[in-house]
Amino acid sequence: MATGAIRNKGAAKRSGGWKEAVAQALRRAGAALVLLLLATGLALWWAARWTPPREIYPTQGVTIDAGNGAVRWGSIKAAGADFAYVMATQGTRGIDPMYARNIAGAREVGVRTGAIHRYNLCQLATDQAANFIRHIARRPDALPAVVWLDFDDRCPDRPTRALLLSELATFLAQIEAHMGKRSLIAPGPAFEAEYRVTSGIARTTWLRRDFFEADYGAHPWAMWQANNYIRLSGADGTVGWNVLRPEGDTR
């Protein structure tokens, strides 16, 4: 009987030890999860506020589209935006529904503006240029227009590089004749890797990479979208934050 009692005590001890080990493991996992959540929250907080140093890049601005809602441009200017590029047209028929309101609001508070066209690989350049010209008025004080170049899952076409460069040259010639000034091209990293647009089209480039200077173009960028996660009190969601390369900087 004494032997049975000793055995029962040993089993209970082993059972208690197993439960305690599990409890300790759960406590450690919980603590690790809390630390991970805190680190993630801190990273998101930092990302939503980070901009390149103004002493290196004196001229900075935003990218705005309809997803940013009814933008309060006074707040955008107060946040340090010297200029704004506003999503305008897309393909042959698309027009950002907030474009006209955003352009008027920005100009009212003294923020210079430029228009962005999202190029569509599935549609003819001449038809896309007609859409841009129909909706975007020529203004001497406007910033150069931008051609935004990205792949779109809704467009399966992948033309040859020669055909793309030819079509893009046609598009640029037509909108530049309308605007009276040369445009910028803004290829995303994947688009540039496949088509090498910056070495095939002689235009000023706008490159995009969050937090680290973009270097995927054939020549140095003139404008860099440095953070696409900025949150400002004057806009819904996130906005793109851009910097201009200072005069004389050839890095």
TrEMBL record:
<dbReference type="GO" id="GO:0016998">
    <property type="term" value="P:cell wall macromolecule catabolic process"/>
</dbReference>
<protein>
    <submittedName>
        <fullName>Glycoside hydrolase</fullName>
    </submittedName>
</protein>
<dbReference type="GO" id="GO:0016052">
    <property type="term" value="P:carbohydrate catabolic process"/>
</dbReference>
<dbReference type="InterPro" id="IPR002053">
    <property type="entry name" value="Glyco_hydro_25"/>
</dbReference>
<dbReference type="GO" id="GO:0009253">
    <property type="term" value="P:peptidoglycan catabolic process"/>
</dbReference>
<keyword id="KW-0378">Hydrolase</keyword>
<comment type="similarity">
    <text>Belongs to the glycosyl hydrolase 25 family.</text>
</comment>
<dbReference type="GO" id="GO:0003796">
    <property type="term" value="F:lysozyme activity"/>
</dbReference>
<keyword id="KW-0472">Membrane</keyword>
<keyword id="KW-1133">Transmembrane helix</keyword>
<feature type="transmembrane region" description="Helical">
    <location>
        <begin position="29"/>
        <end position="48"/>
    </location>
</feature>
<dbReference type="InterPro" id="IPR017853">
    <property type="entry name" value="GH"/>
</dbReference>
<dbReference type="Pfam" id="PF01183">
    <property type="entry name" value="Glyco_hydro_25"/>
</dbReference>
<keyword id="KW-0812">Transmembrane</keyword>
